[in-house]
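$ fold --in a.seq
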Amino acid sequence: MPRKALDLLTESMFYVLMVLCRASLCGTDIAAQVEAITRGRVRLGPATLYTILGKFERAGYTREVETCGRRRTYQVTEQGRAAYLQEVERLRQCLQDAQREEARHD
């Protein structure tokens, strides 16, 4: 069965939702916090970030809550928070599977 576009989040999408679950932020702050959390491993350029935010808005995961000139502030919705928590659980299960497999081969 084919998956819907946002059934699995990319790493960048995951981190965008992660930081928005903590606070409403503008794009520049989202990118900075993602880079800080990942210690520079994930860097979001403007095209990537705003593509993700557009997809999230269309899916109902985020909404724009403030505009001041070109600066737009985004907030996660309950649907977005649920998608984030679902992805956290999926990743936990992946890690548990990997740990079980490592234990079987030790």
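$ fold --in b.seq
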Amino acid sequence: MIRKYDGKIVLADGSEYLGCRFGAKEDRVCELVFNTSMVGYQEIVSDPSYTGQLVVMTYPIIGNYGVTDEDFETKIPTIGGLVVREYNDIPSNFRYTKTLSEILEDYGIPAIEGVDTRKLTRAIRDGGSQKALLTSAGTPAVEAAALLNATDLRRDQVSQVSCKKRWYSRTSNHRYTVVAVDCGIKLNIVRSLNARGCNVTVVPYDTPYQTILDMEPDGVFLSNGPGDPEDVAPVIELVRRLRGKFPIFGICLGHQMIALAYGGETYKLKFGHRGGNHPVKDLSTGRLEITSQNHSYAVDDKSLEGTGLEVTHINVLDGTVEGLSCREDRVFSVQYHPESAPGPQDSGYLFDRFIQLMEEAKRNA
């Protein structure tokens, strides 16, 4: 059956991309980005780092294995919207409990299929991440342009997605206690820590320094999250005060905030890194890892001189900083996601490194 186009995406330059709507039938102005993953659309839709972003999937068929209850990365998805070439609403997967469209509708997330995603991805690649409107096909161009111009993108995404009170994820026969600062934490990070014998206490991003000090953790984890790291001043100040007192491990936004806390700088990439196929080099071993990434900002390597931070990993494609370490303070971070699900899984050893640092700190206490 041939469906009639009933939706479109409008860019700031006036260009339009027609398609068929699914999920929630809502108009939405978002930052337009693309993701090159071939699998994992449920994890993408439920990753808090995509808050307020309209994500273009470059892989053409989305929805074919449905959505499962166990694979969510957050309890309430906050992605801005989804753009796909072809949506499959008849999943073939014995584990699936709902279709992707049903989940999107449940959480008020608009989506569109039938779009020329190759052309749209090239527009993002050439023009950079940009503001876009997902709306009905009949919305007049003048009205769409006015709505785009009148809508500012949010700057307080971390406060939107961070938990409002602490919560716990415990495991049997635990050996370590970890405080995880929630800037939009993915649940598979918590699972990865639990699997290594850690009881995890997840706390809001603005938790006071003294509160964490009083909890006497073996280590502190800084999570991923959406937006500009410079907007998350409470966590940057928290790192400044906690460094050297506990082992600290940061992922993605946590990595950027560690750099800022030590006096480094960050900048916005033209179109960011999003997908499960980014090669990263470990400078200490020369080993290449295939990594999963999702970020708009990067650490400026030239700003790190004199900060005490050492670059440990670099992106093979563009040379951006992918890992940092301060051995004296037992602090380290990576820009990518070692907990990535459904994969790749080359970087799980980083959680083991965090365990080693906590073990060393306990021996030397």
